[in-house]
Structures are given as structure tokens and as C-alpha cells.
Amino acid sequence: MNNIIEVKNLTKQYKTLTAVDNLSFNVKEGEILGLLGPNGSGKTTTINCILSLLNYQKGTIKIFGKEMKPDSYDIKSKIGVIFQDVAVFEELTVYDNIDYFCGLYIKDKKKRKEYINDAINLVGLNEFKKFYPKQLSGGLLRRLNIACGIAHKPKLIFLDEPTVAVDPQSRNNILDNIKTLRNQGTTIVYTTHYMEEVEILCDEIIILDKGKILAKGTLDELKEYASIEEKITVEINDLKEEIIEEIKEFKNVDKISYERNILLITYKKGKNNLGELIDYLKSKKVKYNKIFSERPTLNDVFLELTGKELRD
Amino acid sequence: MTVFKTFWKIVKKYKGTIILYTVMLIAFGGINQIANENETDFVNSKPNVIIVNNDEEKGLTKNLIDYIKNNSNIIDIKNTEEARNDAIFFRDANYIIYIPNGYRNDILKGLNPEIEIKSSGDYQSSLAEMILTRYLKTQSIYNKEIKNETELINTINKTLKKKSIVEISSKLNTDEITKISRFFNFASYSIMAVILYIICLVLYSFNKDIVKKRTIISSMNYKKHNKLILFASSLFALLICILYMILSIILFKESMITTRGLIYLLNTFIFTFTALTLALLVSSLVNSKEAISGIVNVVALGSAFLCGAFIPVEFLPEQVLKISRILPAYWYINSNELLKTTEILNLSTLKPILIDYLVMIIFGIIFIIINNLVTKKKRVS
Hints:
The complex is a heterodimer.
Chain A: E1 3-14, E2 17-28, E3 32-36, H1 43-50, E4 58-63, E5 66-67, H2 73-76, E6 79-82, H3 94-103, H4 109-123, H5 138-150, E7 156-160, H6 168-183, E8 187-192, H7 195-201, E9 204-209, E10 212-217, H8 219-223, E11 230-236, H9 241-248, E12 253-259, E13 262-267, H10 273-283, E14 288-294, H11 298-306
Parallel strand pairs in A: 3-8, 3-9, 6-7, 7-8
Antiparallel strand pairs in A: 1-2, 1-4, 4-5, 9-10, 11-13, 11-14, 12-13
Helix pairs in contact in A: 3-4, 3-5, 4-5, 5-6
Chain B: H1 2-13, H2 15-37, E1 48-53, H3 59-71, E2 73-74, H4 81-89, E3 95-99, H5 103-108, E4 116-119, H6 123-143, H7 149-161, H8 174-207, H9 209-217, H10 222-252, H11 259-285, H12 289-307, H13 318-324, H14 328-341, H15 351-380
Parallel strand pairs in B: 1-2, 1-3
Antiparallel strand pairs in B: 3-4
Helix pairs in contact in B: 1-10, 2-8, 2-10, 3-6, 3-7, 6-7, 8-10, 8-11, 8-12, 8-14, 10-11, 11-14, 11-15, 12-14, 14-15
């Protein structure tokens, strides 16, 4: 697959602060790249540099094989952007807003009308065509924001934290829309600090902090960064201290804790840890309410890499 | 085309504001018409005079008394000095003429007898004095030549009967021109408020950071986008100017289809240009709707009060007018006022008006320069 975006050694400085530090990555055609990082990690700055909204001190950016400049209108015509803040006109209806932003790309009236209706159908705003932004709920506004960014059917879409402060129903709708766009062959760059979204959507993930790439790869590749491989949680009433001590001696056990009737065991490596634990508890006639095993999450990876929570 | 169309869609959303200011102007124009129709014409008035005759009422003395009687209202009061003084004090009489004993004989002898008077010192008393002086001067002229009393009386009366015809050569309908001036003075407020308010609100919507960002990222050349906005803003200002021009023609009809009327319209056009440049400057400085509302009130309402849009310039203190020179509306209203008083319109009489135009254009150029500097600074930051 072709590289749609090629970023090499990108560096952006604000006086003494280095917001983006020697960043290099590629985005392949039809792929969803997740830019993951806490607030202030450099995600939005990176996107703004890619879109030529910001000047940068060092590096090269190529989109669709051509160098991206402020006047690269042929490249811009294939790009759609959805910002975190809703970028619409308060004085225009839902339809007119989409018409305006689509009209910046598509001159042909008939074609534009068709595209606008497709966008409205995609985000599910059919009943709200004549509504003004003030009359829409927060979730519907976000959908309008997305419709304005994708109505011209771009081949590459940048979504900058589109689900911040959105209710679960609207969030699911937005995520479904992104999946639909991916299925249509659109390349997407998705920035967020919600790891669940990245786990659901992204083919490739880049974890950023302080303007640097801490890790990049697929979800499974990133999970390799975690020193733990499995977490087992057991709900047991009145567990004896001697049993905890015995479990501690199990092979591969990294840490163990027992608080409020919850036993949490983390394993470094190994297989069949859950089976081994169940057998041991049976042999000791220990009764438990719940038992489940988890793979390390992106948050665990992030904790490993940065020593801090992802959502700060 | 999308940008241009969207501009007008947003303007349409604010049509209420345009209607409000236009209705205010129409209402003012209507009131202005009615108010001036109630003005009264010139009425000939006579002073109230008391004649105290100490001479015999015969010949020249009688003739003097008759003349005064014909040209003033004779007050008949109690024949005491106290009553006469009271009449002067309470303005029942404006003038008292004391004809001395032997007045007739002294005149016939060729002397110039002294006539005592008392005056209330008001306008009417001056009128009485004019009447008396006129008679005495005429009598004095002929007294030297004519010795026969009857002949002297006839000559004096014949001369005094002669009337000069005064014809005002001006063809100016001052009432109508005053109304036109007042209308355009008030229009300065409507023009400034509508252009400033609407253009700032529309450009605020286009220039909101996030909308601007989305537009810059689009495949439309941002310079072209800005040119379209500028074109649409200019067209809007021009349409407002034309609307108010049409209003003036509806209100003042053929008075506007004259050279003077056309100069009023040209003046309004230049003021509209200045208001447009100011609106563009304010829109690049302000980034909230509340601030726009505040600025429109301060600039439009402030300059209307300071420059004489609401209150006639004649009633404004000198200091206020000095301060208001820093506002474009002052120069617009000043040229309206000059047009009102200039009798003959030619290049030399129009010079002060042309200077006003020049000042308004300079204001516009300054606003454009500042706007460019602000935009450049914003772009760099």
C-alpha cells in the first residue's frame, strides 16, 4: 500500500518549548492511524503542521507523494478536517452549513447537493436539516461538525478528538461513521486520549508524549511494550493470609494485592495462569464469586512507557 | 460564489437590525417634515406707544401725532407720570413720546425742538424709535426749504407714504433644504450603525478562529476568499447607501433631483465609504459579538451625539465640536450644513465641502492602513 502521509524529522518549537521533537512516521492508504497522547503531548500541533496551519523549524511533510505547502490546493482538495471544537456558522441551518464547507471544494451545484445529502445521511441529521446550530444538542452538533468536514468526500481525513464531551450514544454514532468511512477506503488520522476508541478503530497507533514518539505499531505490537502479560482478578470473601503467600510463590507472578475482597494478581509472562489459579483455589476449597483474566491495556503500556496515566 | 452567497444568507439573518435603523430614519424624516410645516410666517407688529402732548394739537404737532397713531398702537392710560412709568415697567407700553410745549412754533421758526422719550428697551421700543426718527428726519430735511406749514405737512406725508419694494433674489427653498440637511445628518447615524453592526457581525462569523482554520485548510485560495468577502461587504454598504438615497428622493422628491441634491447624495456616498472602512477595521480587531454591540453603540451613537446628527450643530458647544473633528461623521454633517447655507454652487463655493470630502477619504485611507497592519500582525502571530 502507498504511503498517503510521510512525515520526516518534524520539529516545531515555540520559543524555548519544543512541541514536536524530530517526529517521523508514515500513514498508509486506507489505514486508520491513532495519535494517542495526554493533553499537551503534541498531537494537535503535529496535525496543524501537517496541514500547513503552522510553520515548523525542521522536517519534511509529504501528502499523496507531494510536499505539503500552504498553497498546495490540489492536495488540500483531497483532505477533510474535523476539529475538536465545532466549526460552524450559528446563522446558517444544518444544510446551509454543510453546503458552505462543501462549496469550498465542490463547485458543481448538482454534485454538491448529492454530496451534502450523503453526508447528512451518514451522520443521521436528516430530521434536522433546517435546524440552526443553537437548536441542536451537543451530540448532534458534533455530527454536524463531522458532516461539514467530510461532505466533499475527501480521501484523507484528520479527526482531532471528535468525541470529547460527547454522550455515549453520539460517541457510538461517531465511531460507526468513522468505521463506515474506513470501509469506503478513506485514510484517517485520529487523535484522541481515549484508549478504548483507539483499540476499536486504529490499525496503527503512535503514542506521543512531550512531542516525541514513545511507541508505534499495531495494538498487539504496542502491548509487547508492557512488562506484564496478564492480569487476573478474583472476588473472594475473607481470604487467608497464608493462601496469599502461597500464590505469591507461583511461577510468573509479578505482584499480588488483596483489598476489599478483591484479589488482583499480575503475571510477567507465561501461559495457563488462569487454569493454574483455579485448580489451586479448588484444591484449597476456597470459594470465589467472580474470576476473570485480562490482557494488558494501552493504559498499562502508557504507564510502562511514561509512568503516568493516559487521561491526565 | 459559495462565500458570496453565504455572506448574504448571514446578512438576511440580521435583517431585523437593518429594518430597525431604516424605520428610525423614516420616522425621523416624517417628523422632520411635520415639525417644519408648523412654522409661522412673518407678521407685521406695531409697538405700544403713549403720547404726552404738551403743545396745541394743531398743524405740525397734529401731523406728528397722526403719523405715530397710524404706525403704532396708542395706549390710553391715566394722565399721570406714575401710571406711565408703570405701563413701561409692565411692558404695557414700549415707548413714551413727550411733545414739548411750543413744538409747532419752534419747527416753523426753523428750530430743532427736543422730544423727550422713555423706552422699555425691548425690540418693540426700537421699532417705535425707528418710526419717530423717520418722521423727524423727514421733517428736518424739508423744514429748511419749505416755510409754509401746509405745504411742509403735505410734503412730509407724501414722502413718508412712499414705500420701497424689497425683493429677495434668492430662489433657495430654505425650509426644504433645512429638512434635507436634517435628514442626511440623521442618516449619518443610521448608515454608521447599520454598516458597522452588520458587517462586523457577518465578518465575525467568517473570522471565528475555528471556521477560519477550516476555510484555510480547504482547497479555496484564502486570498480569493477574503477578496470575495471584501467585495460582498462593499456591495452591502453600497446597497445601504442607495436605499437611504432612494428614501431621501421619496421624502423630498424634486428637491433631490438638483445639483444640490446630487451633492448631498455624493456626500452620503463618501461617508458610506468611510463607514465601510471603519467597519472592516473594527471587525479585524474585535472577536466577540458583545464587543461588536458595545463598539457600535459607542461609535455610532457617540458620534451622532457629538457631531450633530440628533441635535442641530448650532446648539452644540464649541468644545464638543472641536472634539468631534476626530470623527468622520463631523465632516459629513459639516458638509451637509455648508450645503444648506451655500447660495450659489460653483467650484469656489464648493471648496469647503470638497475639503470635507477629502478629510472623509483620508479617514478611510487611515482605517485601511491600520486594518492592513492589524491583519499582518495577526497573520505573523
